[in-house]
Write a structure and sequence with these properties.
alpha+beta, 18% strand, Conserved hypothetical protein from pyrococcus furiosus pfu- 392566-001, ParB domain, two-stranded antiparallel sheet, globular, two-stranded parallel sheet, 6 strands
Length: 131
């Protein structure tokens, strides 16, 4: 994302419907989240071995289509579903619902992204909150 590109607009993620009070909305540092998320069992589809986000053409077909849909929404300035982050069993960040949104924004140069985090994990996210 360039400095002149408008910030994306977000909707609450449907995954938290009915549980909105259990979540906070915060901005997180993309590079710190991705570095932690690399330990996830699910990161191989989106991350190259060096920890960078794969290019559109290097993604598996299913993930390619998800990223293409996010890029299309961004080009139309359509609101996106805010990603949902949590802390995994290995004490690393897990990107739940909205993984394609978070990683597409990061790959386009976003430094910070607005996300939902469980209020119960607020202390665990202190090192990931953007300053």
């Amino acid at each position: 994302m360039t400095k002149t590109a408008p910030l994306p607009r977000f909707n609450d993620n449907p995954a938290i419907k009915g549980k909105e009070a259990r979540y906070d909305v915060v901005f997180v540092d993309c590079s710190k989240v991705i570095k932690s998320w690399k330990a996830s069992l699910f990161s191989f589809e989106w991350l190259a071995e060096d920890g960078s986000v794969r290019t559109l053409d290097d993604l598996p077909l299913k993930e390619h289509d998800k990223r293409a849909a996010v890029e299309k929404a961004l080009s139309r300035h359509a609101p996106l579903d805010r990603p949902v982050l949590g802390i995994g069993i290995m004490d690393n960040v897990e990107i739940g619902a909205g993984r394609e949104v978070f990683l597409t924004l990061a790959s386009l140069g976003a430094k910070n992204v607005q996300v939902h985090i469980p209020k119960s994990c607020t202390k665990d996210f202190k090192d990931f909150i953007a300053s």
